[in-house]
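Duplicate of #3305? Posting structure anyway:
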């Protein structure tokens, strides 16, 4: 019988109290015994005189009556204690001294009561832990008595299937009849296998009918309890809803099938290799383009198929990959086909990590047609090849007569002027077209060697272009033509504008507290206030002054980092634990609403940091965790470790249960003067996280931010582990 059934049975039956002895009968027996004892003494006192004999007999009678009353009182007290223990009072004690047999019996009753109380406390603690564990792991529990067929279902078991507490009978057939017909044979087979002793655990995933009629995927597990002869007495198990897991598996299978269809359908070769360059995956395009079968190529190195002239760059990439220093590789190379011919491909490789091991993945694009076109273009248009190979900037080529002979696509993209509109036309017409775009005519037709200028186009979109003219000599002292180089500097102009906006925002942030300070101080100078009001105004001035000082300090720190590049930092190889402890101790956590949980190991490796600056980083993150958790909660600080291709790293993680951020807010968290709370209810300058970002860059680390609205935020400050051979002394960077 399980705990719940025992409690139900005890509550359903009336309380049975032990029968009390008849106190009058016990007293009569004690009196009779005393009388018999007195009668046995008559012969001894017969020789005495009658008055003496009478007195002696009365004294004996009184003595035995008192003795009987004392025994009765002690027995009654022991009885009351036993009755209270039976009623469930763990504090019941006799309190009798341990002399005489009844006293020793009372002491043993007290010892038994203490042990019983302790066992009850342990049982209550155990039941509490079990209840919390069951609630936390979200599983239902069942207890099956095989001899009676009765089964106990926990409340969670019933709610998983949509039932109330009293809606399902406590019998084994309850869940067996709800098993999906297609799964019933498999479930009963697994159950019989365990009950017969052929398996140590009953474990089965199957579908179970919900109250609303549909089926849930569940996982049933259980263990049978047997007697000495091996007979199964009972079976206790658990039920967990795995519908989401099954749905995820189906979605993953569908995603894999979709991925496979894409991989098999593309005309490019998709490849994957290990850290040594041995091919571990190829799609069907490999066999179509090279003629080599996939089974033949797998296990061989990519380098073994590459032409000798291009082999060095590929071999260098895989050497760097083995050393953990590889990045991306993009190159053109020739591969040997099955028929012995060489075929041009564009290779794009990227270093990856698979199960903690360095690997590479990439794409091979067939360049046969492109190479043929490039050869033809090279033979017929050498001057155009010179222009096109300079990069993504715009180029205009004019012949010796001043007519436009070629414009590249970058020029078309910048100006919106189609090639057919300007090619073959004089440069003067090109000036007119540019003037129609909202810019002043540059005068390309008259410019000489080294001329330059700016174009501010309004159409097709606002663009700032810097142009530079160069003359092409013909080798005989004349001019073969001219090249006009155009570079889009819109981005650089935008950066300058952003700097101006930054200065404007900074001035606004400075002016706000200054205005408050000026206004409140002017009030204090011009009027007399009550002491309470005067103190309130002074506190506001003090608060705004502190905000102003913090803002100025953060701006100065940012400007120092930008100006000196971290050279003023006092970098040292040191233990990170004392720095973290100091930061945690320095951060005020309001105890009534917030709680700080600190989980920190003792064997962390050393890092190379400026202790004061890193402590400031951690204080900024902790301060945000407190401020952006206005409802309170647990703020956790713990250490993480990560082994990556670039080296081992130590992370200091700070998690809060606060308001969280959207992906858009998370993307802007490191912008200066940006705050995730647009209402302004949460105080701050918006410079804290940008300062943390700058500090972590100097330390060679990075920041990981994971957040969701209403679910809190987790910030991890990752630091590279210091080289064991590095000097512990510090200096600026």
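Output from current build:
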């Amino acid at each position: 019988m399980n705990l719940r059934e025992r409690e139900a049975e005890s509550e359903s039956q009336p309380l049975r109290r032990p029968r009390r002895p008849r106190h009058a009968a016990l007293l009569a027996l004690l009196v009779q015994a005393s009388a018999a004892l007195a009668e046995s003494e008559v012969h001894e006192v017969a020789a005495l005189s009658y008055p003496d004999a009478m007195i002696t007999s009365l004294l004996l009678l009184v003595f035995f009556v008192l003795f009987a009353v004392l025994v009765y009182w002690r027995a009654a007290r022991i009885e009351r204690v036993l009755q209270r223990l039976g009623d469930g009072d763990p504090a019941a004690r006799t309190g009798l001294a341990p002399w005489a047999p009844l006293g020793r019996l009372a002491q043993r009753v007290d010892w038994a009561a203490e042990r019983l109380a302790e066992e009850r406390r342990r049982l209550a603690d155990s039941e509490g832990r079990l209840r919390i564990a069951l609630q936390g792991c979200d599983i239902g529990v069942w207890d099956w008595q095989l001899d009676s067929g009765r089964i106990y279902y926990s409340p969670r078991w019933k709610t998983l299937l949509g039932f109330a507490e009293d809606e399902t009978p406590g019998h084994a057939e309850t869940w067996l009849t709800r098993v999906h017909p297609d799964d019933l044979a498999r479930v009963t087979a697994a159950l019989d296998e365990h009950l017969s002793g052929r398996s140590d655990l009953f474990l089965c995933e199957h579908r179970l009918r919900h109250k609303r009629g549909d089926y849930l995927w569940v996982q049933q597990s259980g263990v049978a309890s047997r007697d000495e002869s091996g007979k199964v007495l009972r079976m206790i198990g658990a039920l967990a809803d795995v519908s989401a897991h099954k749905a995820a598996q189906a979605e993953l299978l569908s995603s894999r099938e979709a991925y496979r269809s894409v991989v098999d359908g593309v005309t490019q070769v998709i490849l994957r290799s290990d850290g040594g360059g041995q091919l571990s995956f190829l799609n069907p395009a490999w066999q179509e383009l090279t003629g080599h079968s996939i089974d033949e190529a797998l296990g061989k190195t990519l380098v073994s198929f590459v032409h000798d002239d291009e082999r060095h760059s590929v071999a260098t990439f895989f050497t760097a990959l083995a050393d953990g220093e590889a990045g991306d590789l993009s190159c053109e190379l020739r591969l040997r086909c099955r028929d012995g011919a060489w075929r041009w491909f564009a290779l794009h490789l990227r270093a990856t990590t698979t199960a903690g091991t360095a690997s590479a993945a990439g794409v091979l694009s067939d360049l046969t047609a492109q190479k043929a076109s490039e050869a033809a273009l090279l033979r017929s248009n050498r001057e155009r090849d010179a222009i096109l190979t300079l990069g993504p900037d715009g180029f205009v080529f004019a012949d010796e007569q001043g007519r436009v002979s070629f414009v590249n696509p970058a020029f078309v993209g910048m100006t919106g002027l189609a090639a057919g509109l300007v090619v073959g036309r004089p440069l003067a017409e090109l000036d007119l077209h540019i003037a129609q775009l909202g810019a002043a005519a540059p005068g390309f037709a008259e410019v000489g060697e080294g001329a330059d200028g700016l174009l501010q186009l309004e159409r097709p979109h606002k663009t700032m272009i810097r142009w530079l003219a160069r003359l092409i000599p013909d080798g005989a002292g004349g001019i073969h033509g001219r090249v006009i180089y155009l570079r889009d500097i819109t981005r650089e102009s935008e950066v300058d504008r952003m700097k101006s906006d930054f200065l404007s925002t900074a001035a606004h942030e400075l002016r706000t507290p200054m205005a408050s300070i000026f206004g409140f101080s002017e009030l204090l100078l011009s009027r007399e206030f009550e002491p309470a009001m005067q103190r309130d105004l002074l506190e506001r001035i003090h608060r705004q002054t502190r905000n102003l000082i913090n803002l100025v300090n953060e701006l100065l720190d940012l400007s120092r980092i930008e100006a000196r590049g971290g050279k003023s930092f006092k970098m040292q190889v040191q233990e990170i634990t004392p720095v973290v402890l100091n930061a945690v101790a320095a951060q005020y956590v309001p105890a009534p609403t917030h709680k700080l949980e600190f989980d920190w190991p003792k064997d962390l490796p050393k890092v190379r940091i400026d202790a004061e600056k890193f402590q400031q980083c951690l204080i900024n993150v902790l301060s945000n965790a407190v401020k952006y958790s206005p409802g309170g909660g647990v703020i956790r600080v713990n250490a993480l470790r990560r082994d990556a291709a670039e080296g081992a790293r130590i992370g200091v993680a700070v998690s809060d249960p606060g308001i969280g951020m959207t992906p858009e807010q998370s993307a802007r968290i490191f912008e200066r003067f940006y705050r995730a709370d647009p209402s302004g209810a949460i105080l701050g300058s918006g410079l804290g996280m940008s300062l943390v970002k700058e500090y972590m860059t100097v330390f060679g680390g990075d920041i990981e931010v994971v957040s969701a609205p209403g679910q809190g935020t987790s910030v991890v400050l990752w630091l590279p582990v210091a080289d064991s051979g590095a000097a512990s002394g510090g200096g600026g960077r």
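Confirmed duplicate; merging threads. The CA atoms of residues 311 and 713 lie 48 Å apart. The longest helix spans residues 100-137.
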